[in-house]
Specification:
Number of strands: 0
CATH topology of the largest domain: Tetracycline Repressor, domain 2
Helix content: over 70%
Radius of gyration: 22 Å
Strand content: under 5%
Number of domains: 2
Shape: elongated
CATH superfamily of the largest domain: Tetracycline Repressor, domain 2
CATH class of the largest domain: Mainly Alpha
Largest sheet: none
Number of helices: 11
Order of helices and strands: HHHHHHHHHHH
CATH architecture of the largest domain: Orthogonal Bundle
Amino acid sequence: MKSRHATADTTRERIVAAAVDLLAEGGREAVSTRAVSTAAGVQAPTIYRLFGDKQGLLDAMATHGFTTYLQSKTDLQFGGDAVEDLRQGWDVHIGFGLANPALYSLMYGEPRPGASPPAAVVAAELLAALVRRIAEAGRLRVSEEHAAQLLHAVALGTTLSLIALPRERRDPAMVDLAREAVLAAVTTDAPVPATPGPAGAAIALRAVLPQSPALSTPERALLEHWLDRIARGDAGGPA
């Protein structure tokens, strides 16, 4: 016999799956409490008991989307070239959005700072890990944080722009052009240092610093702060 907790989880999953199907078929307007309860075979009060309100259900749907997207990213077979791996990750991101336009818009179209699902945080960490590998190879032109933010922003904007267009007007070349433009802005084919001068050296050292056991935690934090300032080109006293 299933426990009450397991039964609730199963019911919750069935409701989310039904809501996601309705979203894909008819957009946000189709995801009414009545339609979801009918599709999932439950009473409307069950939805409120499990999700609190309509926003709670939408949040659970977004979490489902991020979890599905995360699975597609973790299934990738990465090689030795971090930039090429980033290209693969970019294409997976765009492909997921175009294959699931309504769900993608729900996931990314209404950002709420501080309210990211755990799976969304993991997805961001995967991007950060790819950027870190590029930095370790000395092929990053900007700081890791700026590179990750720019890559995410351009991928998001590209996907939402394509979703907004009728299928017949979507130009596949736009995906490649946007990808290569942002990669050219944040990476280089040159060996270490990727960026000439102190900034490039600071970016490369910052990336591999965690591998060194020579510094204490406070010492490492201080050096990271200094390296970040050098990479940004900050001048003057303390930031």
